[in-house]
C-alpha cells in the first residue's frame, strides 16, 4: 500500500478559496440616487456622496455626468416651465373661445 498525502494550502489569499467566506454586504441602497452604493459603516454613498448636500460629480468622467444630468429622467416639474414662461407664469385665467369663422377661412 502506498500512502498518498494531499497538500492543502493553509494560508488564505484573495482568490478562489476566500470567496466562500464572503457573505456580508458592505453596500446597500441609497435613498437619494437609488443605487446600491451606500456604505453601511461609512454611512456615505459612493455614487452621489449622500448625506452630503452637494451631489458627487467629477469632470474626469464626462459620460457619467451625461447619464445623470437634467433631462434623463421624467422632469415632472421642469418640462412644463418653458410653456409657462411664454405667458409670464400667468395663472387662474381661461383662454377665450375661438371664433368659428377664423377656423373655416384658414
From TrEMBL:
Family annotation (InterPro entries): Ribosomal_eL37, Ribosomal_eL37/eL43, Ribosomal_eL37_CS, Ribosomal_zn-bd
Keywords: Metal-binding, Ribonucleoprotein, Ribosomal protein, RNA-binding, rRNA-binding, Zinc, Zinc-finger
A Pfam family the protein falls into: Ribosomal_L37e
GO cellular component, as recorded: cytosolic large ribosomal subunit
GO biological process, one term: translation
A Gene Ontology molecular function term of the record: structural constituent of ribosome
Protein family membership: Belongs to the eukaryotic ribosomal protein eL37 family.
Described function: Component of the large ribosomal subunit. The ribosome is a large ribonucleoprotein complex responsible for the synthesis of proteins in the cell.
Protein name: Ribosomal protein L37
Gene: LOC107459526
Amino acid at each position: 500500500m502506498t500512502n498518498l498525502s494531499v497538500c492543502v494550502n493553509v494560508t488564505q489569499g484573495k482568490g478562489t478559496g476566500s470567496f466562500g467566506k464572503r457573505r456580508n454586504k458592505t453596500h446597500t441602497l441609497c435613498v437619494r440616487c437609488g443605487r446600491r452604493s451606500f456604505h453601511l459603516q461609512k454611512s456615505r454613498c459612493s455614487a452621489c456622496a449622500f448625506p452630503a448636500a452637494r451631489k458627487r460629480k467629477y469632470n474626469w468622467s464626462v459620460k457619467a455626468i451625461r447619464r445623470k444630468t437634467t433631462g434623463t429622467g421624467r422632469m415632472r416639474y421642469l418640462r412644463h416651465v418653458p410653456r409657462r414662461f411664454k405667458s409670464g407664469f400667468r395663472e387662474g385665467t381661461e383662454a377665450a373661445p375661438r371664433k368659428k369663422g377664423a377656423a373655416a377661412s384658414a
